[in-house]
């Protein structure tokens, strides 16, 4: 039974506003259907009123008597305005004809059809009802720009499969190039953790010191400790300012086992892997592997598409399989590490373990630098004290030497002054006093000279 009865034969006499809807495909309906209603008596709509209320008002323009306005053929547009706008914006990126864009898709031009453009186009592909509308358009009718692109696109066989294969090849290359180094870093970190004898010796040192500190309480007598303990060593502060348990352990290592100071070198690979999220990597790798398998199956439906993409997809699929194998190896290492450090493998988080050891490495290097700075400061203070002592001794010696020289100069001046006075006084006395020896006819005796000195 047909529903052609309800297709109106009335045609508007002027341009009308559009009702954007999705038409059902023109398939013959069977059985009970909403659209099979020949027995119903339906009132005829008032088409003149519809024209009055829903006609498009054309802007009034002055008619030119000199030239006759050429009437352009009306474009057929049936897409949703928003979708039509998005598709037109997308097409403007290429600055070429629709045929050239379709040819890019056909030959798989990854340089011009890069990932983001392919994602946009896949979101804007025509739906089934829109394809049906395209098929119903009479030949020679002018279509809108977006509708015209669809008309060219649907002529390309398996265009959806081609676009999906193009996008996958574009994304797979970037995803694998990003994930492969991260997976390799995690595997290397696992091997470093299991093979570092310095880490094992340092942990034994921590265990020995920790049992000493915890002697006599419930935390004492431990046979091992959780790896997170390593990142908490700096939190145990000593009695001296700025000296934690970690600072002390590094000083002990320097004095008794200097090779332990090279421990950060063993943990460098673990530190690099700390920024790699194992859970996210595993999830991304699994999604990519499934997409590759799905596209590999869909391309088989079109021999031309299969020939075009099979080699690339096979290469990416093999690389993805190797990545999956490495992730399985990492999982085995996780179980091995859990047993190695004595933790429950069901609850053990490799990601958390790597982050804890990376944090400990950073703390170790920082504490080592602080120890060096403290020792250098102590040496500078000792040198300064020695210099101050030497300076004080030098000043004291100089002062004593100055005082001794002053006393000698003072005594020399006094002697000279006395001698001068004596000489002056002696001559004066000899001149004014009678000479006894001369009066008595004798020479003056030495007693007279002594007497002068006595005066």
UniProtKB/TrEMBL annotation:
One family name in Pfam for this protein: FH2
Domain FH2: 6-390
Chain spans, region Disordered: 1-25, 371-410, 426-455
Composition-biased stretches (Basic and acidic residues): 371-392
Highest taxon of source: Eukaryota
SUPFAM superfamilies xref list: Formin homology 2 domain (FH2 domain) (SSF101447)
Listed PANTHER family: INVERTED FORMIN-2
Protein name in the entry: FH2 domain-containing protein
Lineage: Eukaryota, Metazoa, Chordata, Craniata, Vertebrata
């Amino acid at each position: 039974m047909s529903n052609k009865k309800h297709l109106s034969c009335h045609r508007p006499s002027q341009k009308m506003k559009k009702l954007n809807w999705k038409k059902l495909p023109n398939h013959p309906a069977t059985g009970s259907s909403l659209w099979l209603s020949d027995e119903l008596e339906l009132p005829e709509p008032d088409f003149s009123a519809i024209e009055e209320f829903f006609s498009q008002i054309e802007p009034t323009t002055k008619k030119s008597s000199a030239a006759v306005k050429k009437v352009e053929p009306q474009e057929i547009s049936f897409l949703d305005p928003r979708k039509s706008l998005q598709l037109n914006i997308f097409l403007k990126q290429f600055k070429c004809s629709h045929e050239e864009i379709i040819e890019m898709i056909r030959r798989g031009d990854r340089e011009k059809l890069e990932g983001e453009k392919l994602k946009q186009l896949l979101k804007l592909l025509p739906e089934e009802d829109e394809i049906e509308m395209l098929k119903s358009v009479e030949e020679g009718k002018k279509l809108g720009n977006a509708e015209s692109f669809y008309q060219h696109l649907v002529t390309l066989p398996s265009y959806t499969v081609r676009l999906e294969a193009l996008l996958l090849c574009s994304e797979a290359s970037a995803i694998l190039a990003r994930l492969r180094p991260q997976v390799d870093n995690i595997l290397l970190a696992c091997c470093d953790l299991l093979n570092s004898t310095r880490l094992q010796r340092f942990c034994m040192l921590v265990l020995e010191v920790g049992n000493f500190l915890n002697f006599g309480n419930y935390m004492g007598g431990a046979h091992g400790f959780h790896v997170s303990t390593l990142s908490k060593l700096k939190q145990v502060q000593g009695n001296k300012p700025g000296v934690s348990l970690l600072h002390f352990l590094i000083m002990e290592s320097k004095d008794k086992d200097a090779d332990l100071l090279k421990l950060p070198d063993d943990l460098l690979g673990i530190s690099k892997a700390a920024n790699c999220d194992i859970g996210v990597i595993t999830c991304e790798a699994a999604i990519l592997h499934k997409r590759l398998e799905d596209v590999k199956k869909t391309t088989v439906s079109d021999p031309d598409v299969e020939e075009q993409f099979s080699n690339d997809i096979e290469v990416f699929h093999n690389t993805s399989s190797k990545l999956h194998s490495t992730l399985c190896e990492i999982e085995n290492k996780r179980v091995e590490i859990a047993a190695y450090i004595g933790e429950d493998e069901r609850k053990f988080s490799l990601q958390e373990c790597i982050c804890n050891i990376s944090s400990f490495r950073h703390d170790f290097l920082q504490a080592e630098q602080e120890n060096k700075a403290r020792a250098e400061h102590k040496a500078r203070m000792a040198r300064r004290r020695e210099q101050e002592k030497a300076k004080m001794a030098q000043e004291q010696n100089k002062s004593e030497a100055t005082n001794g020289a002053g006393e000698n100069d003072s005594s020399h001046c006094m002697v000279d002054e006395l001698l001068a006075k004596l000489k002056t006084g002696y001559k004066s006395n000899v001149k004014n006093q009678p000479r006894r020896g001369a009066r008595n006819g004798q020479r003056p005796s030495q007693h007279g000279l002594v007497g002068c000195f006595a005066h």
